[in-house]
Amino acid sequence: MPWFVWLLAAAALGAAEFFTLTLVLGLLAGAALVAAVVAGVGVGLLGQLLALGATAAAGLLLVRPVALRQMAQPSLSHEGTDALIGRRAEVVREVTATHGLIKLSGEEWTARSLDESLVIPVGALVDVMEIDGATAIVYPRELLP
What we know:
Layout (H helix, E strand, L loop, with lengths): L2 H18 L4 H17 L3 H28 L15 E6 L7 E4 L2 E7 L11 E8 L2 E6 L5
Parallel strand pairs: 3-5
Antiparallel strand pairs: 1-2, 1-4, 2-3, 4-5
Helix pairs in contact: 1-2, 2-3
């Protein structure tokens, strides 16, 4: 089979992988590229099919399981508002169950208390327990008087 037919097959499989994200069609596209190279060197159809089969099998049996394990692991770094959870902040305006203001990472954030019965005074240090939209849910670091 001519090398450009393998190249077209690789392009079609690569495009299909782009839309499906299964990691199967992309590996088959790589195998078709190897078959295109083998065909370009002048090896016959049987050699091309063997190269295709060997490369596809190696990709599906060796590469795909490793890639799936890597993708299943949670991210080690937190981004956006997730990075603020667990940080310390200072109360700028009294924090209650419904309103308040804290200084968090150099910025002022609206806040409310995790414990609805607490009133956290100005100047108290708090921990950010979660972020709800643009509001930090906080809890005091020390016992309040």
